[in-house]
Amino acid sequence: QVQLVESGGGLVQAGDSLRLSCAASGRTFGSYPMAWFRQAPGKGRNFVAAMNWSGLTTDYADSVKGRFTISRDNAKNTVYLQMNSLKPEDTAVYYCAARSESYAAYSRQENDYSVWGQGTQVTVSS
What we know:
With about 130 residues, this protein is an all-beta fold. About 0% of the residues lie in helices and about 50% in strands.
């Protein structure tokens, strides 16, 4: 079973950048689609970005398109979320997630992901 640990969150000002990392342990995760979700205070968990197993195909929520970039380094068993031009509305706990079916399509649906990290807090001040 793959285990995921996020890092890189913090407190930044509007317009700043952050890079989140998601390190996988256990089985190699190179064949699994990966995604980032986020949960703002008092709200549900929402899709942010996803990529297929190779990293060649990606998908983004409209709210982050053009500002966030998802990428992966399968040799390091790590997925990244580069976040630029951060806004106060990006404040949330960010979660990394993996599907458990090798070579499956990525998805925007939370229920399609069976492995989750513990989350990392991102706070953007205005």
